[in-house]
Amino acid sequence: MKKKKVKTRNLVLTLIVLALVIAYLAFLQANSMQHSYAITIVERSCIYAVAAVSMNLIIGFTGQFSLGTAGFMCIGAYVTGILTIPVDMRDQIYYLYGMAPWLHDVHLPLGVALIIAFALCAGIAYLIGWPILRLKSDYLAIATLGFSEIVRAVFGWDGLGPITNASYGVSNIPAFTSIFECVAICAVCIVIMGLLIHSSYGRAFKAIRDDDVAAEAMGINLFRTKELSFVISSAFAGVAGGLLAVFMRSAVTSTFTVALTYNILLMVVLGGIGSVSGSIIGAFLVTGSQEWLRFLDKEYYWSDLFKNLAGTAFGGMKVPLLRNGFRMVIFSILLMVVVLFWNHGITGSKEVTWDRFAAFFAGRKRKKTAQEAKK
Fold this sequence. Notes:
Order of helices and strands: HHHHHHHHEHHHHEHHHHH
Number of helices: 17
Structural class: mainly alpha
Number of strands: 2
Radius of gyration: 24 Å
Helix content: 55-70%
Strand content: under 5%
CATH topology: ABC transporter involved in vitamin B12 uptake, BtuC
Number of domains: 1
Distance between the termini: 37 Å
């Protein structure tokens, strides 16, 4: 009976939070002109959350240190962009190379383009997984990182200009029709990955992560399981890349550098390796913090901060340190502080659940009662 009450409580709380989120998104959409900046942060955070969960699937849940996320995001971005840009705009975009005739009139809805990007990234991951997944730890990381750079070089090659437009990239990609479209697609992707992690396949992933020798002794095929994890992770990274291309309305190889992979890895580590909810929290924290600290990149005078100093010699002096790039200095310091206090990430390897919240508040209540009893 108690378990039934707990499940009912959890369901009610989940529905309340879901309703509040939908109401907030509806408010932003209804006032999109005034809150365009907030919409930008929410959409970018959701897209990075998909990329972070996909990376966590291979690193945190399977224990394979793969750094090929940016490469698959690049593939997904180009595929989605090429298939969704309006046909009447293609001659203007491909003015230098001319678009390939067999591709020129192919135009697909966003959902279909993302599915194709998913399938293509899965197929490529399956092919390259055969040789590179036989490597371990640092060697696997180097191989997948090299793959990402190869993808960037190939997509920027003049020989593929009629398809990828080479280094000029693809532009004029139709934007999201609303914030709900972006959030809904991201939510579906994360839910699918979450269900997979909590299935028998997910348990096999975790068994390999914890002890691959014991997992093999239990009858788990190590290579096939690693391959499955790598394929799924890469496929959803491709979807994240496609969504990022729609968000930015362009796909250029310079976007998908090693720095992007490290940024997503930061989200995974900060949120908690081996936690889906941790990756989502990490994506929102990192993206939001980088945007909210942007004012530190602007130079200020003391008179801008203190009105009573205006017109004085002191007020005409610039505030020290504040200049372009200082934002990342402060951001890095904040990250160091967080890592010092939460060296396993904000959530650790556990998920954020209502039961954890209840246990936390119950523990604080017992501690407070014990302190009052001592007095």
